[in-house]
């Protein structure tokens, strides 16, 4: 499924539009209603919603979708496209779709039904997938490195993307400590939030010291055993290796990020 998703056509407009949170409409449709509207069998309170859809006024569409309940707007949307575009749309129950943001689903449906047909990828793309090659790669990546401190230089293949500064990263909210200090001196404490590392730690008798951001081993022999397997000497690694983990990520706007991935 991931390989199919990777090769399919992408459109980031829905993502970027839905992040907007308009507080008021930018246009109210008054005066004589168009003929197509008079043919609709909908409550008049949705007039500005359907007219905004017809005009592709996304600011208004998003405002009204976030204002009204999703199950109501879904029925309005079905009525609009069946009447105006003569589309035959199957009845769906939004509650059956395993995604909590139902308003987002309705917005995506509107956008999809209005998009130029040439922009829609109708044929499924199938890519050959060799699971044996995948398994070989996984096994190789999991092979231990000796001495242990060479693990990061050998296994750390890719840096964190530095163009994700539009998101609320935890590093932007650090107080009284730097990211480097966390990485050098408190890496065990930070790693404990990772399921894989938590499993590794929980094999031993430990205590979580939140005040000092540390993992305390109750038995010295157990600590030595753990260190022999996982003490990667973060603070002793080269600058190149360290920057792959904690490189600078400047804050940027969401629009800048979207432009960078288009």
TrEMBL record:
InterPro entries documented for this protein: PAZ_dom_sf (IPR036085)
Name of the protein described by the UniProt record: Uncharacterized protein
């Amino acid at each position: 499924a991931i390989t199919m998703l990777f090769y399919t056509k992408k459109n980031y407009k829905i993502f970027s539009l839905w992040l907007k949170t308009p507080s008021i409409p930018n246009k109210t449709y008054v005066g004589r209603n168009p003929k197509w509207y008079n043919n609709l069998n909908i409550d008049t309170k949705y007039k500005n919603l359907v007219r905004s859809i017809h005009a592709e006024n996304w600011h208004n569409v998003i405002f009204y979708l976030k204002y009204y309940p999703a199950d109501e707007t879904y029925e309005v949307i079905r009525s609009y496209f069946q009447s105006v575009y003569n589309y035959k749309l199957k009845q769906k129950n939004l509650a059956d779709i395993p995604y909590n943001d139902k308003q987002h689903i309705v917005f995506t449906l509107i956008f999809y039904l209005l998009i130029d047909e040439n922009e829609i990828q109708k044929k499924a793309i199938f890519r050959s997938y060799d699971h044996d090659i995948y398994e070989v790669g996984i096994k190789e990546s999991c092979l231990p490195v000796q001495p242990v401190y060479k693990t990061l230089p050998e296994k750390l293949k890719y840096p964190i993307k530095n163009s994700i500064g539009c998101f609320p990263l935890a590093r932007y909210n650090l107080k009284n400590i730097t990211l480097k200090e966390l990485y050098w001196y408190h890496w065990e404490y930070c790693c404990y939030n990772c399921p894989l590392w938590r499993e590794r730690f929980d094999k031993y008798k430990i205590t979580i010291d939140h005040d000092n951001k540390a993992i305390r081993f109750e038995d010295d022999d157990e600590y030595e055993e753990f260190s022999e397997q996982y003490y990667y000497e973060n603070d002793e690694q080269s600058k190149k290796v360290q920057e792959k983990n904690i490189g600078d990520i400047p804050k940027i706007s969401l629009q800048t990020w979207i432009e960078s991935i288009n």
